[in-house]
From TrEMBL:
Domain Aminotransferase class I/classII large: residue ranges: 21-386
Family as reported in the entry's similarity comment: Belongs to the class-I pyridoxal-phosphate-dependent aminotransferase family.
Keywords recorded for this protein, A-Z: Aminotransferase, Pyridoxal phosphate, Transferase
Documented EC number(s): 2.6.1.-
Organism: Noviherbaspirillum suwonense
UniProt name for this protein: Aminotransferase
Length: 390
């Protein structure tokens, strides 16, 4: 038997739990205040337009729907980006953010077979597995510092300075999963500088654009990497930002050092796609492309995404306040400083076990909780339970 996915396995255990008051703070999914996964209005409207057109479902091009790739590229790099104007950027539709990472990993293994890959310590569980399955040796660079509940930035920089040139560095563009601890703007400057000077290959994973400080604000780090003139890989996902988890919509973008190199990169990437799944599915890409390219729907999306972002912030504040009100034996103020869907709560494995066994509250063994699963109806129950297990 293969081991279970440590995160998706928690959902299996949650589903099997018969307690009607169970709460799943495990998997990274955004729920609304009624505990439901939303279907965004902008998505409904786009789907209504698509139904009216009743277009046939032919095969898409290997690299996906052209209007999708263009809209995503402009979203990721900025519509006025020099890398777009100079035709140095290519973007292909991918099966979610995971699919974007896997395409990038397979591509890199083919052209940089001896490179090593570095991921943050800790990182999203699937990063290591994905790059290992593509054939890479995967190492960790220091990232989280439990003492400060922030980033061990000196340790991270030291490691970046020690990696062999040509190493692939996977970086979370925003809303670090699992810790919620992001780099400051000044720290990003230093990382970009070292990566660029030392000839490392940056691979940005942006699965939560819009959940940190805003669409433009969260995307800024991509723009800054793109401005260095070096190569760059970016996988992005719309699973969370469009609440389209099951449609598998994402992309991989690669910035090359010239337009001519970019066209060769695209041709090779198409070969990777062809030999994996031939071409991507239509529906999700069409929905996202319709929303991004229709001004009224796009505004609606930006407003709905802002609503999700602000609700998560409110839940962070509410959880901290309720923990204090329940005389929790510890200060949780750090939770409001973290970004995105997750909080590294500092709960230990035995505490997580007690939450699960005694209260039917499911967190990840590492203490990660999904703040986006809290709501005004369950936050009291969660705060009381946490206060009691610590
Ligand atoms: N990268 C990170 C950091 C994630 O948290 C996730 C989770 O969803 C992904 C990639 C994968 O996204 P998708 O579900 O679109 O494949
Ligand atoms: O970290 C999370 O919870 C999300 C969802 O193999 C996820 O990124 C978790 C595990 C996995 C795929 C997606």
């Amino acid at each position: 038997m293969a081991p279970r996915d440590p995160i998706l396995g928690i959902t299996e255990a949650f589903v099997a739990d018969k307690n009607p008051n169970k709460i799943n703070l495990g998997v990274g999914v955004y729920y609304d205040d009624n505990g439901k996964v939303p279907l965004l209005q902008c998505v409904r409207k786009a789907e209504a337009l698509m139904m009216e057109k009743a277009a046939p479902r032919t095969y898409l091009p290997i690299d996906g729907l052209a209007i999708y790739d263009k809209a995503v590229q402009e979203l990721v790099f900025g519509a006025e980006s020099p890398v777009i104007q100079e035709k140095r950027a290519i973007t292909v539709q991918a099966l979610g953010g995971t699919g974007g990472l896997k395409l990038g990993a397979d591509f890199l293994k083919r052209f940089s077979p001896d490179a090593q890959v570095w991921i943050s310590d800790p990182s999203w569980e699937n990063h290591r597995a994905l790059f290992e399955s593509a054939g890479f040796q995967v190492n960790n660079y220091p990232y989280y510092d439990p003492a400060t509940r922030g980033v061990n930035f000196a340790g991270m920089l030291d490691e970046l300075n020690a990696m062999p040139s040509g190493s692939v560095v996977v970086l979370h563009a925003c809303c670090h999963n699992p810790t919620g601890a992001d780099l400051t703007s000044e720290q990003w400057d230093q990382v970009i500088d070292v990566v660029s000077k030392r000839g490392l290959v940056p691979f940005l994973d942006m699965a939560y654009q819009g959940f940190g400080d805003g669409i433009a604000e969260d995307g800024d780090v991509v723009h800054r990497f793109a401005a260095t003139g070096g190569s760059l890989f970016v996988s992005n996902s719309f699973s969370k930002s469009f609440s389209l988890y099951g449609e598998r919509v994402g992309a991989l973008s690669i910035v090359a050092t010239s337009a001519e190199e970019a066209s060769r990169v695209l041709s090779q990437l198409k070969r990777v796609i062809r030999t994996n799944y031939s071409n991507p599915p239509v529906h999700g890409g069409q929905v996202v492309a319709t929303v991004l390219a229709t001004p009224e729907l796009r505004q609606m999306w930006e407003d709905e995404l802002a609503g999700m972002r602000l609700r998560i912030r409110e839940m962070r504040r509410l959880l901290v306040d309720k923990l204090a009100a329940n005389s929790a034996a510890q200060d949780f103020d750090f939770v409001v400083r973290q970004r995105g869907m997750f909080s590294y709560s500092g709960l230990t494995k035995p505490q997580v076990d007690r939450l699960r066994n005694e209260y039917s509250i499911y967190a990840i063994d590492t203490g990660r909780i999904c703040v986006a699963a809290l709501n005004s109806h369950n936050v009291d129950q969660v705060a009381k339970a946490i206060a009691s297990v610590i």
